């Protein structure tokens, strides 16, 4: 097999150069959050970590992440000890900035390693596609915006996720895959959204006999169970001994928040809220009752705690039920056909379901969908045509994370660069599907992508010129509603790909005609 | 390397491209693997990819690096009392938009007085007018001095990028295309060269970080060169005058240009200064004085005072004469010394041994003139005798190196001028071959390195390191790789000498960085590291000058007969 150019490492070097140049860029409060965690884990005994609240940014990630911060703080101590003082709120000396920014770049080596594993796990003609997909993840504008400008450590954690997904490709790696995923859960609990797919897949392929689902492989169950227990024990055990688990859980799952985040993540609830706003103007004419109290909050624009004026309220219970329902569909398929491709599809769809229907979803969570999807986007053109609107919508929806003028060219140009490069490249690499495509689906997606250009122009430029500072919620609302259409559209397209009922009928029909 | 097999499935859109791809891929397959990372990055673009897919991606990528680099500080950021180049450019926007045109060149010289030719003034005026729409306080007369409003920084950074994308980048794209076609170089190779040219570290460091508009001038020079390639001499002259009118530094190329096109240049020059002549006449007729601060009669002309004896100071044309003389006076600072700061040129290097300042200024001016003429004469002689288009970059580079090494009042940023024509060689015959890549890379890295003292003064070490190392990495140069040395088919003697000489310089540069970073110079020689930088830089640039000259001689075939007799004789000059 000849070498494919450019290699992943070469891309990583150039990307690292750009990331270092971005050191002085805007950084969000997450920067201070992580500095504070460095300080907490370094200067306080472990029993105080989840009780400390000098800063409003308390530690709300699971223990493995706290250990990770604690080990980084050992190096931070040599760079600038002042950043490790808990009361030193908002401290950002240049050493602190350099250290924290650099730690993100270094921790991304995990992602690099995992992606190389992914490339190496592909064989033959698909290797080329795997390399393209791996580079697209490495250079993802989502990671650039969230990690290297906004500030977080997603690259490292998605690296662990990908490593775990790739390990599941071979029978020998199933156990390790499950354990790595368990460790990831103990690092950031958002990945629990993907856990059902893991559960079903490991259950079917590892715990049950491949020949019959009624035969249980007991030894495998014991290995997996004890392994997971050991990892959980390592993470939470010390805290459990001191009876701190309720306190940790209250930090990890703050249920007091509203349905939508301050900026609506582009999901079903964003469309629901948008419908509600529209109905406010229509309702009096049709004779629907309008909740006056909610109206007041509506006019304030986007607030944390959204309440609906016309449409019925949404409860966390409903969100949970809907999420589970739409996760159940792909999981059933996974249980019946437990191949690696279905597994990645199921992981993606679990991500979709929880992103689209979850309670208080953050827009950054879109990476939960995009990154697993990237691994299989090149399987055939059907997957690609569902991936395309997601890639556009998902990344455009991240734009409001960066609102400073200096970063505007970076986020837009980089995203356009990435979309142009990879959508063109993927188009060449994806083999045709052996099934019929959805009627007009990709025409719509082309139209959809085209709309993004005037939309971005309006939101970032025209709106400010025309309205000044008034109606600030308007561009955000358009942005998230637009993105929501794309994400939901791609979800429907992908679900359609999974359940190609109509297609099967068509294919069968065509076969009959041909015969 | 074959396209993904689609035997089992029928591609939905069976494009003709896939068919031609294989046909092209076969001969390309003989072209080994990419020999340096930049080629690897553009590797997938070989074959059937259209330029409309590659070019936008290239322009976006280089733009991202420019903008990201611009997030760092600029020269004189929060450094009162005088600030730096950023303030100079901002101040020119202030005076050109706030003062009548006849006062531009007379306004307060001490505070960054306008000392660039008129096109810079017009450019500043335009940018000042646009900027004032966004925020008029940026360019208020006097009140805005030393402003460091963060939005102003973004605006100024944006103006550099926009000016560059309007002038330099189209010029580079067109030049690379024309020049590579001249040698029948494949378009794919030309893309690689284009990226290398647009990622030149010194240019990004000086314009987008340290802050200046050199790329406008360099863009006009490139346009002029590509017009020469196309045989459009009138346009070549127009563009060259535009370059000259933007920054007098373009004079470094002037002999080479005049060797080709003289008359059109003069006419274009007349058009260039027309606005300032008309503006002066208009202001004079309305009674606006060019020096409103003066009470008494105007002082005599700053240079050429003898002119006044022949001219009537009350005549209608006198304000124009006065204006132009003042402009020349401002633009060409003969009143200053042989060199200003530490520059890696001949005079500054020799100064370590012989203190130049003890000699009278007039003598130094004459010596410098003679040395410069001697240095540029061979290249221009060859160009006159053999005016071949293929030789243009060599001739431009050799002439500019001659000026840089020997002329009067050279600035370290002027190294950009010889670097540009030298770097475009990458698009030419064997441009990505080892020999040219090694020398172009050497000159660029050395050039960026001589600018380090300038950059470290404003704490720009990180972007310096990132951009130079990135470029070295992309082109497979030391310190990241030695792939540019030991080309097959060259005499081993030559290969070894190039590798050893370059290796020694790279080693010196690395050692120097270590010393400058960690060792404080002895108390009686506080400038020791800077002087060492200048000395090494000057020696390296001298080598580059001789290399350009030698290549010019070799490519022009002037010594073809001699060379056929003694092939070693030609190569010894290298």
From TrEMBL, chain A:
Catalysed reactions listed for this entry: an alpha-D-Glc-(1->3)-alpha-D-Man-(1->2)-alpha-D-Man-(1->2)-alpha-D-Man-(1->3)-[alpha-D-Man-(1->2)-alpha-D-Man-(1->3)-[alpha-D-Man-(1->2)-alpha-D-Man-(1->6)]-alpha-D-Man-(1->6)]-beta-D-Man-(1->4)-beta-D-GlcNAc-(1->4)-alpha-D-GlcNAc-diphospho-di-trans,poly-cis-dolichol + a di-trans,poly-cis-dolichyl beta-D-glucosyl phosphate = an alpha-D-Glc-(1->3)-alpha-D-Glc-(1->3)-alpha-D-Man-(1->2)-alpha-D-Man-(1->2)-alpha-D-Man-(1->3)-[alpha-D-Man-(1->2)-alpha-D-Man-(1->3)-[alpha-D-Man-(1->2)-alpha-D-Man-(1->6)]-alpha-D-Man-(1->6)]-beta-D-Man-(1->4)-beta-D-GlcNAc-(1->4)-alpha-D-GlcNAc-diphospho-di-trans,poly-cis-dolichol + a di-trans,poly-cis-dolichyl phosphate + H(+)
Membrane spanning residue stretches: 7-26, 98-116, 128-145, 175-196, 216-241, 361-378, 385-402, 408-426, 447-467, 473-494
Membrane topology of the entry: Multi-pass membrane protein
Record keywords, A-Z: Endoplasmic reticulum, Glycosyltransferase, Membrane, Transferase, Transmembrane, Transmembrane helix
EC number(s) per entry: 2.4.1.-
InterPro entries noted in UniProt: Glyco_trans_ALG6/ALG8
Compartment(s) where it occurs, according to its Swiss-Prot or TrEMBL record: Endoplasmic reticulum membrane
Top-level lineage group: Eukaryota
Pathway: Protein modification; protein glycosylation
Family that this chain belongs to: Belongs to the ALG6/ALG8 glucosyltransferase family.
Role summary: Dolichyl pyrophosphate Glc1Man9GlcNAc2 alpha-1,3-glucosyltransferase that operates in the biosynthetic pathway of dolichol-linked oligosaccharides, the glycan precursors employed in protein asparagine (N)-glycosylation. The assembly of dolichol-linked oligosaccharides begins on the cytosolic side of the endoplasmic reticulum membrane and finishes in its lumen. The sequential addition of sugars to dolichol pyrophosphate produces dolichol-linked oligosaccharides containing fourteen sugars, including two GlcNAcs, nine mannoses and three glucoses.
Protein name: Alpha-1,3-glucosyltransferase
Organism: Apiospora rasikravindrae
From TrEMBL, chain B:
Keyword Glycosyltransferase listed: yes
Compartment list: Endoplasmic reticulum membrane
A family per Pfam: Alg6_Alg8
Pathway assignment: Protein modification; protein glycosylation
Coarse class of the protein's main subcellular location: endoplasmic reticulum
Organism in which the protein naturally occurs: Apiospora rasikravindrae
Protein name according to UniProt: Alpha-1,3-glucosyltransferase
EC supergroup of this enzyme: transferase
Documented EC number(s): 2.4.1.-
UniProt entry keywords in alphabetical sequence: Endoplasmic reticulum, Glycosyltransferase, Membrane, Transferase, Transmembrane, Transmembrane helix
PANTHER family, per database record: DOLICHYL GLYCOSYLTRANSFERASE, DOLICHYL PYROPHOSPHATE MAN9GLCNAC2 ALPHA-1,3-GLUCOSYLTRANSFERASE
Lineage: Eukaryota, Fungi, Dikarya, Ascomycota, Pezizomycotina
Family affiliation: Belongs to the ALG6/ALG8 glucosyltransferase family.
Transmembrane stretches, start-end: 54-74, 154-176, 188-206, 218-246, 252-278, 363-385, 391-408, 438-455, 462-481, 493-516, 528-548
Domain of life: Eukaryota
Membrane topology of the entry: Multi-pass membrane protein
Presence of the UniProt keyword Kinase in the record: no
């Amino acid at each position: 097999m000849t070498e494919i150019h450019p290699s992943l490492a070469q891309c990583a070097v150039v990307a690292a150069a750009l990331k270092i140049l971005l050191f002085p860029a805007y950084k969000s409060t997450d920067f201070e959050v992580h500095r504070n965690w460095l300080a907490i884990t370094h200067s306080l005994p472990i029993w105080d970590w989840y009780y400390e609240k000098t800063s409003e940014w308390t530690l709300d990630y699971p223990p493995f992440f706290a250990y990770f911060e604690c080990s980084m703080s050992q190096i931070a101590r040599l760079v600038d000890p002042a950043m490790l003082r808990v009361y030193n709120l908002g401290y950002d000396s240049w050493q602190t900035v350099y250290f924290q920014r650099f730690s993100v770049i270094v921790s991304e080596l995990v992602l690099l390693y995992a992606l190389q594993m992914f490339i190496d796990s592909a064989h033959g003609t698909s290797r080329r596609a795997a390399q393209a997909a791996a580079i697209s993840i490495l250079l993802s504008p989502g990671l650039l915006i969230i990690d290297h400008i906004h500030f977080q450590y997603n690259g490292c954690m998605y690296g662990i996720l990908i490593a775990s997904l790739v390990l599941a490709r071979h029978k020998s790696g199933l156990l390790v895959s499950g354990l790595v995923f368990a460790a990831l859960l103990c690092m950031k609990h958002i990945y629990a959204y993907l856990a059902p797919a893991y559960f079903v897949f490991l259950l079917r392929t590892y715990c049950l006999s491949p020949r019959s689902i009624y035969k249980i492989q007991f030894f495998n169950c014991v290995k997996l169970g004890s392994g997971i227990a050991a990892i959980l024990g390592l993470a939470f055990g010390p805290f459990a001994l001191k009876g701190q688990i309720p306190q940790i859980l209250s930090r990890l799952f703050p249920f007091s928040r509203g349905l939508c985040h301050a900026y609506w993540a582009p999901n079903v609830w964003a469309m629901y809220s948008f419908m509600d706003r529209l109905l406010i103007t229509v309702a009096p004419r049709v004779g629907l009752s309008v909740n006056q109290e909610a109206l007041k909050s509506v006019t304030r624009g986007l607030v944390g705690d959204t309440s609906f004026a016309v449409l019925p309220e949404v409860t966390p219970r409903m969100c949970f039920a809907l999420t589970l329902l739409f996760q159940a569909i792909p999981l059933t398929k996974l249980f019946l056909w437990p191949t690696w491709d279905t597994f990645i599809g199921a992981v993606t769809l679990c991500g979709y379901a929880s992103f689209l229907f979850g309670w208080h979803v953050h827009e950054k969570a879109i990476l939960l969908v995009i990154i697993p999807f990237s691994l299989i986007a090149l399987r055939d053109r059907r997957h690609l045509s569902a991936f395309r609107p997601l890639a556009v919508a998902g990344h455009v929806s991240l734009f409001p994370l960066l609102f400073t003028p200096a970063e505007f060219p970076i986020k837009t140009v980089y995203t356009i660069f990435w979309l142009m490069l990879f959508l063109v490249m993927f188009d060449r690499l994806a083999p045709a599907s052996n099934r019929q495509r959805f009627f007009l689906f990709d025409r719509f997606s082309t139209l959809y992508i085209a709309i993004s250009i005037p939309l971005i122009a309006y939101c970032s430029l025209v709106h400010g010129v025309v309205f000044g500072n008034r109606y600030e919620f308007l561009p955000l609302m358009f942005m998230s509603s637009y993105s929501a259409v794309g994400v939901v559209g791609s979800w429907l397209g992908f679900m359609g790909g999974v359940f190609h009922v109509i297609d099967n009928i068509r294919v069968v029909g065509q076969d009959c005609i041909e015969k | 390397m074959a396209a993904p097999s689609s035997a089992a499935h029928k591609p939905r859109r069976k494009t003709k491209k896939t068919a031609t791809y294989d046909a092209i891929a076969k001969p390309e397959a003989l072209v080994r693997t990419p020999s340096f990372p930049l080629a690897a990055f553009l590797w997938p673009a070989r074959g059937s990819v259209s330029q409309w897919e590659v070019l936008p991606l290239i322009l976006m990528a280089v733009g991202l690096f420019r903008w990201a680099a611009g997030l760092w500080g600029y020269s004189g950021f929060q450094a009162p009392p005088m600030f730096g180049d950023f303030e100079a450019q901002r101040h020119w926007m202030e005076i050109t938009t706030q003062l009548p045109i006849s006062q531009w060149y007379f306004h307060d010289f001490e505070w960054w007085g306008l000392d660039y030719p008129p096109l810079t003034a017009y450019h500043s005026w335009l940018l000042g007018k646009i900027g004032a729409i966004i925020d008029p306080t940026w360019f208020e007369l006097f009140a805005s001095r030393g402003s460091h409003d963060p939005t102003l920084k973004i605006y100024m950074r944006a103006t550099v990028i926009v000016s560059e994308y309007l002038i330099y980048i189209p010029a580079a794209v067109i030049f690379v295309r024309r020049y590579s076609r001249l040698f029948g170089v494949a378009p794919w190779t030309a893309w690689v060269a284009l990226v290398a040219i647009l990622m030149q570290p010194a240019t990004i460091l000086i314009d987008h970080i340290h802050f200046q508009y050199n790329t406008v001038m360099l863009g006009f020079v490139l346009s002029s060169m590509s017009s020469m390639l196309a045989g459009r001499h009138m346009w070549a002259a127009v563009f060259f005058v535009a370059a000259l009118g933007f920054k007098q530094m373009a004079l470094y190329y002037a002999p080479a240009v005049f060797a080709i096109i003289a008359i059109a240049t003069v006419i274009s020059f007349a058009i260039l200064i027309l606005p300032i002549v008309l503006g002066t006449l208009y202001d004079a007729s309305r009674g606006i004085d060019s020096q409103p601060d003066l009470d008494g009669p105007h002082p005599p002309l700053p240079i050429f005072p003898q002119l006044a004896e022949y001219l009537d100071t009350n005549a209608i044309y006198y304000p124009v004469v006065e204006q132009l003389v003042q402009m020349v006076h401002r633009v060409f600072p003969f009143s200053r010394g042989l060199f200003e700061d530490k520059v890696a040129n001949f005079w500054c290097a020799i100064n370590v041994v012989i203190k130049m300042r003890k000699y009278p200024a007039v003598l130094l001016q004459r010596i410098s003139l003679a040395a410069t003429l001697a240095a540029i004469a061979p290249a221009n002689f060859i160009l006159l005798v053999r005016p071949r288009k293929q030789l243009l970059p060599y001739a431009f580079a050799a002439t500019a190196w001659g000026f840089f090494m020997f002329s009067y009042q050279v600035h370290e940023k002027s190294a950009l001028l010889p670097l540009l024509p030298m770097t475009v060689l990458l698009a030419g015959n064997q441009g990505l071959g080892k020999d040219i890549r090694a020398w172009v890379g050497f000159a660029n890295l050395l050039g960026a390195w001589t600018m380090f003292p300038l950059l470290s003064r404003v704490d720009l070490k990180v972007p310096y390191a990132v951009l130079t190392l990135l470029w070295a990495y992309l082109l497979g140069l030391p310190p990241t790789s030695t792939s540019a040395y030991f080309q097959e088919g060259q005499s081993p003697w030559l290969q070894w000498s190039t590798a050893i000489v370059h290796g020694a310089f790279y080693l010196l540069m690395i050692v120097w960085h270590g010393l400058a970073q960690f060792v404080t110079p002895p108390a009686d020689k506080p400038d020791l590291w800077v002087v060492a930088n200048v000395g090494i830089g000057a020696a390296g640039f001298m080598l580059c000058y001789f290399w350009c000259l030698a290549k010019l001689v070799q490519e022009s075939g002037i010594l073809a007969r001699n060379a056929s007799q003694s092939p070693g004789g030609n190569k010894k000059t290298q």
